[in-house]
Amino acid sequence: MEHYFTNNQNLKSELRDIEFSFNDYNFLFKSDNGVFSKNKIDYASLFLVKTFFANNKKNFDKILDIGCGYGFIGIVLSKILNKPVWMYDVNKRAVHLCKMNILINKVEATVEESNIYEKVEGKYDLIITNPPIRAGKKVLMEFLEGALARLNKEGELWFVISKDQGAKSVKKELEKLSTVELVDKSKGFWVILAKN
């Protein structure tokens, strides 16, 4: 079975458009076979973005979207916050699509292929992610613990995770490293905020 975090160069390309409107902004995303949630914006990412905008009161200058896929989360944040966003994903096709989507939606953002934090440099005020749960607990914790290590002072990590896929135990583990808050939950998904 193909996963969205693997690279299959032989997978046939079937580009498709996904339209999205939020807060009086209209977005268009190009998607394709071999990437996460290829036919529509997935519920967890949408819930994360909506929860972030409903609850965030801070002004972040340096933003990282890790495991960005075709760029939905980072591009929406960049457009609405009018801030540059750095985005990374291990999937070559997702990175290619993300580059297209940055141009289409006219946002200030960069995207690069990276296996988790391999190519990520510097520290950030905000790190936001819908991490690849199906890659396993070890990879998931590398995403989240790695994010905490890359936050500036007063920085924040926002992420979404399914209750059925270990949200409670992940929250407990992160509580050893940071201040953790369950911001909201819906349809079995939790949006969690962790601060240094």
Describe this structure in words.
By secondary structure, the chain is α/β, with parallel strands linked by helices. The mean pLDDT is about 90. It is globular and about 45 Å long. About 30% of the residues lie in helices and about 30% in strands. It has a single domain, classed as Vaccinia Virus protein VP39 (Rossmann fold). Helix 1 runs parallel beside helix 2 (about 70-80). It contains five helices and nine strands. The longest helix has 13 residues, at about 45-55. The strands form two sheets. It has a seven-stranded mixed sheet, sandwiched between helices. Strands 1-2 form a two-stranded antiparallel ribbon. A hairpin with a 2-residue loop joins strand 8 (about 180-185) and strand 9 (about 190-195).
pLDDT averaged residue by residue = 91
Structural class designation: alpha/beta
Sequence stretches where pLDDT stays below 50 over 5 or more residues? none
Number of strands: 9
C-alpha end-to-end distance:
38 Å
Percent range for β-strand residues: 25-35%
* Widest beta sheet: strand line-up: 5-4-3-6-7-9-8
Q: The CATH topology is what?
A: Rossmann fold
Task: Tell me the Rg in angstroms.
Answer: 16 Å
Taken together, the total number of domains comes to 1
Name of the CATH superfamily? Vaccinia Virus protein VP39
The name of the CATH architecture is 3-Layer(aba) Sandwich
Total helices: the number is 5
Helix content: 25-40%
